Model the fold of this input.
Amino acid sequence: QVPLQESGPRLVKPSETLSLSCSVSGDSIGIYYNSWIRQPAGRGLEWIGRIYVDGSTMYNPNLKSRVTMSVDTSKKDFFLKIRSVTAADSGVYFCARTHPPTEWFDPWGQGTLVTVSS
Amino acid sequence: QSVLTQPPSVSAAPGQRVTISCSGSSSNIGTNYVSWYQHLPGTAPKLLVYENRERPSGIPDRFSGSKSGTSATLGITGLQTGDEADYYCATWDSSLRLVLFGGGTKLTVL
Done:
């Protein structure tokens, strides 16, 4: 297994940008994709999108206008930015290795809680 | 409301068998593979089944997956108290062009 670890600010102000990183340790990035998935408080899981090591991306159409994902292959880090956040963007954010073309996720990071509040 | 429909909760006694359903449509479950995840709040979700019925190494055969038409099912036999968790199905939707998760099912082992 390749541990994944999310990190970033726990508190973001409304209308600002949420920024998170996902660090991959113990293995090369290789040929894998990485997805970001979130869980709003008291609700189910929502797929935000995924990125390949070459930087190609696929986003949830419902979030596409506000989301940017990027990758730093030298540091084995993946990044997520969500612009113009509101309280609805609060929740636990996970990164997870993604296995195309059948789109299953393993392993997952532990998740990081982000709260949008002034 | 999720496009993939799961029962909000299921329960059974230790040692018994339980099934969790995941109902979708022709654009998601009907044409794409389904995966299942176990999630305990505060921990990393765990893959239980991928590609409808395949189990990753380390997942006991008490957990099984199946798919028929536009529905999928996760079965758990020999229930243990440690199985109490939230369970999610997931699949690609070819029309919406995104990965869908079911709303989640809370399993209680009485």
In short: The radius of gyration of chain B is 13 Å. Chain B touches chain A through 27 residues (CB under 8 Å). The mean pLDDT of chain B is 96.
